[in-house]
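Deliverable D4.2, example record:
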Amino acid sequence: MDNTNIVFDHVHIISKDPESAATWYVEKLDGKIINCQEVRGAPQVVVAFGDITIIVRGQRPGEEVVTGQGMKWGTDHFGFRVEGDFDGFCDDLKEKGVTFSLDPVDFTPNIRIAFIDAPDEVSIELLQRKE
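Output generated by the structure prediction step:
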């Protein structure tokens, strides 16, 4: 594996309403829809944030989707690094109606974080690394 490299590519989200959820990522977090299509019987929308994408897809025929609250094994959240005015960015999100599960707080002396609620029970961490 001397010449092998991995690069993070995407987050895949199962959504009750993929088009509406994708629109949320565009309107609230300034993502860009780069592809909409049906894949294996379900709508799928790809939203880009720079080089990273979020794939938001609907329920495929024959799939059973369950919901649940509380901590679960597996992925807990994903994070976006905010460069620039962190608190101003969070204030803008609040003005857009975004719900915060954790308001901005200094997590460590070098990291400021906040958590927001996205559609489909998705938790997103916003963070800023201080120099």
